[in-house]
Amino acid sequence: MVPPRDSPSNQDPPADVRDVGADQFLWIRLINLREQIKSISRQVTINSGVTAEIMRNPDTSSHSGRQGLLSTLVRTLREQALLTQEELAQRSGLSVGTIRGLESGRIQRPRIGSVRMLANALSVSESELSALVAAPKPVGSGRARAAASTAVPAQQLPAAVAGFTGRAEALTLLDRTLAPETSYQLVITGTAGVGKTSLAVHWAHRVRDRFPDGQLYVNLRGFDPSGSPVTPAEAIRGFLDALQVSPQRIPGAVDAQAALYRSLLADRRMLVLLDNARDAEQVRPLLPGSPGNVVIVTSRNQLSSLVAAEGAHLLALDLLSGTEAKELLTLRLGAERAVAEPAALDELVAMCARLPLALAVVAARAAVHRGFSLADLVRQLRETRDQLDAFTGDASITDVRAVFSWSYNTLSPAAARLFRLLGLHPGPELAVAAVASLAALPQAQVRGLLAELARVHLIMEHAPGRYVFHDLLSAYAAELAHTAEPAGERSAARHRLFDHYLHTAHAAALLVMPNRRPLDPPAPVPGVTPELLADYAAAMTWLSTESSQVLAAFNPAADTGFPRHAWQLAWTMDDFLDRQGRWPDLAAAHTTGLSAATRAGDQSGRAYAHRGLARAFIKLGRLDEANLHLVSALEHFTDHDDLIGQAETTRTLAWVLWSLGHRQEGLRQAEATLTLYVLSGYRIGQARALNNLGWLYAQLGSYDKGRTHCEQALALQREIGDRRGEAATWDSLGYVRRHLGHHQEAITCYENAAALLGDFDDRHELADALTNMGDSHLAAGQADAARDAWRRALDILTDLGHTDADGVRARIQRLGDNGSEPVDR
């Protein structure tokens, strides 16, 4: 069964997600088993010697040298295997042009999929070739991909810790995890601010060369003041992205995603750092479970069940010793200053309770006020502590709060206000533009205030223009916001922040899908400065960078009196999350939006949320539930005479009914969709509905009806300039004309579709058009042209890691040298 042409994101959902996930799991295991067998044989082949000799070339330190070595290595290995370029292309599944481009140096940054295919064909380690492909691919402009993949292992570690000192015993214990033949799990536990993350990150950077397959990192935010820890599904998805798994290859079910993640780590040597975990349940799905991998977990809790059930080791991190604490301060303050006032140094250590976070804040304050003696700083800190109410019986906690207050009280009024407002931000990161809207200030002024906060270590700039909080400091800022900011100002600040995300995300959504009917969000309140996004690439970059912040805003918006923002934010993320295959996130977003709209009595919001949930459930294989949500949405749009809303809902309903096997009812809904679009005057929708009907008629064998509808769609799309819709219609016409026996006309249709799709980001659709083009060439007796089209499609699908690559590869193999065997479709 083939779905209508404009099913959500033009991607076919799995009929049974669990089956798809299981197939992928078995496929990955077979690949790993094959690689194990091949790696044994490689140890006795001459290729290793050739590679080693070339790699010893002193020019490998430069990028140009690496690329020259890559071309030399490919050519040398091919000649040793007694293969021509054509024979290597046949064996690897790559095109002859790709082989020639690699050997000539014209292709300097091959895709990781191409490297893998080449390595398999030449019986050489993939890592030996990948080591020579060190530079990222250039990012194109306009409709080009917002980011390019690289052929290097995952590198997710945060920046190395500056000025780390002490913890010798803990580092020794961590070093014991490095035995290569076993998997090892270590939980670093200790109180907040004791330096668990600093220790883990410092050690990880120190031993990163022991993990050639890469390092994975996630901040699980287990004790984040917002109360929104990272779910295992979110963490796994981030790991799959880091491991360069394309969205099309990621199954929808979380269990299947976890199986794929564990399969990818099998037989690899990787370090997995799970930071700030709340409990064992958050960690357990993220454990690789295969030898050679090391997992380091940090948590305020001891995670006893992980120790008992999974055999994890426990490292209880205590406060710094007095000597270590003085070493840390001395390193940050400078030896001359510390030696000059040993008594004051000892008192600062005591007043910071030997807690590394507090010591870092004190050192940062001292660095700002270099004209002050340490005794002056001690006196100021003592006065601050004496002024605080003892809100807890724990004197060490009171001292730490005093350290924070001491630094906070020295801020300029504008920086102090900004610090308080930052406590209202729900996301894991703070971008300058969003903070400017939160505070209703110009970005230039905000940058200066953020720099002031960073200088005294109340926030940290972990990337240019992006800041993070320690969760203790975030909680302190939130406490100040609720005690020092009036309720009205807190609400106004949240309103500005939600407006910032809504209006920027809405603009991004329309750049990603230009022909989508826009929402009508309320105008942003004064002080909001939405970000200006120039084109598709800028929109995708913003969505990729800010998606965690936008997702984190849904629940706070719903819970603090902004239900319209909640469901409209979910709408803005539809296409991006769908393209990324993040369907559980999409379902969660619309669930929050539906709940918020229901509580607020917003019937329009409910309808949009119902339709959004249906879209997510379709991709998750939950078609019956999707059908119920579409019926609910359709009731609202019908009651309110919203013709376009009805049409967009019946369009998706037609797809669901067709997928459930109710073909005549699906066709009836598709015909109703066309009528509704015509009545509404929405010509973009009308053209796409015509293409849908043409495709469905063709699937039922009514090729003449199909051709008539598609040709009407094409004429309208050309008139209104809907190039993406035109590409889909050319593909439909190619299918119709091929089945009518007009093979040359079908080839022309697919060529037109491919030419248009080259301007867009949907490379899977391009590969599909090329595959169909190859089928038509073969049906027309043009074997060489068929092989060339299929190889172009295979290059794309291999780079995407898409399972459709297997079918295209099988076509090429069945064709053989004679090109006489037909290919079934």
Keywords:
39 helices, disordered C terminus, three-stranded antiparallel beta sheet, Rossmann fold, Arc Repressor Mutant, subunit A, six-stranded parallel beta sheet, 825 residues, mainly alpha
Description:
- With 825 residues, the chain is mainly α.
- Among the domains are: 156-316, Rossmann fold, CATH 3.40.50; 322-408, no CATH class; 413-485, Winged helix-like DNA-binding domain superfamily/Winged helix DNA-binding domain (Arc Repressor Mutant, subunit A, Orthogonal Bundle); 771-825, no CATH class.
- Helices cover 63% and strands 5% of the residues.
- It contains 39 helices and nine strands.
- A six-stranded parallel beta sheet has the order 1-3-4-5-2-6, sandwiched between helices. Strands 7-9-8 form a three-stranded antiparallel beta sheet.
- α12 (280-283) links the parallel β4 and β5 (294-299).
- α31 (643-659) runs antiparallel to α32 and α35 packs antiparallel against α36.
- Mean pLDDT is 81; it is low at 7-67, 126-151, 389-397 and 817-825.
